[in-house]
Design brief:
Subcellular location: Membrane
Main location: membrane
Organism: Linum tenue
Structural class: mainly alpha
Shape: elongated
Strand content: under 5%
Distance between the termini: 42 Å
Radius of gyration: 24 Å
Number of strands: 4
Helix content: 55-70%
Largest sheet: 2 strands, parallel
Family: Belongs to the ABC transporter superfamily. ABCG family. Eye pigment precursor importer (TC 3.A.1.204) subfamily.
Keywords: Membrane, Transmembrane, Transmembrane helix, Transport
Number of helices: 8
Length: 210
């Protein structure tokens, strides 16, 4: 409501609003990503290194920024945005493994456009890569690498780095913000046309006397 009023007064352009909205939300999103992230990360005993924790917090922050960017596209329909995210959660590779997803719609294309896929894979790679675990199924002294667990258990694509997952998520942030910019600009052009058409139809409609 504030943006629409100030936009009608000519205070700033739509692009300035989108950039300002993005920059102003970064400190808040960073705090609500870092504080719960610190509690959860060390509470469950994940790898205790600065590099792994930095990646964890950064991935959590980018995911939060992406969710906000996605929801900005549905300012007048929060239920729609939540429903789309719900569909993405179902086929993100957590509740059902990628190979168990039906190919039609759920895997192609939804699995590959779901940001949960890349967020989950980033978290998995950050924790399992470089570790070795005992493998009692193969014998008392046998072991299994974290990379093998990622491939065989979680069915994670290990053909690229965990930093690529963050880069993909950041690209989605830019894409959703650009879509939001386009939606706002399109709304500014379409709404006056609709109002003009509705007004002209009211003027030309015949008056029936009873």
């Amino acid at each position: 409501q504030i943006f629409r009023r100030e936009r009608l007064n000519g205070h700033y352009e739509v692009g300035a609003f989108v950039v300002g909205n993005t920059l102003s939300s970064i400190p808040y999103l960073f705090l609500i990503s870092l504080i719960p992230g610190v509690i959860a990360y060390f509470l469950v005993g994940l790898q205790k290194s600065i590099e792994h924790f930095t990646y964890f917090a950064l991935l959590l922050f980018v995911t939060m920024l992406l969710v906000e960017s996605l929801m900005m596209m549905f300012l007048m329909g929060v239920i729609t945005g939540a429903g789309i995210q719900g569909v993405m959660v179902l086929n993100g590779g957590f509740f059902r493994l990628p190979n168990d997803l039906p190919n039609l719609f759920w895997k192609y294309p939804m699995y590959y456009i779901s940001f949960h896929k890349y967020a989950n894979q980033g978290f998995y790679k950050n924790e399992f890569e470089g570790l070795t675990f005992p493998n009692p199924q193969q014998g008392a002294n046998s072991s299994i690498s974290g990379e093998e667990i990622l491939r065989s258990v979680w069915q994670v694509d290990t053909g690229y780095s965990k930093w690529i997952d963050i880069a993909i998520l950041f690209g989605m942030v830019v894409f959703y913000r650009l879509m939001f910019l386009g939606i706002v600009k399109l709304g500014e052009k379409v709404k006056p046309m609709l109002k003009k058409r509705v007004g002209s139809s009211k003027k030309t409609s015949p008056v029936v006397e009873i």
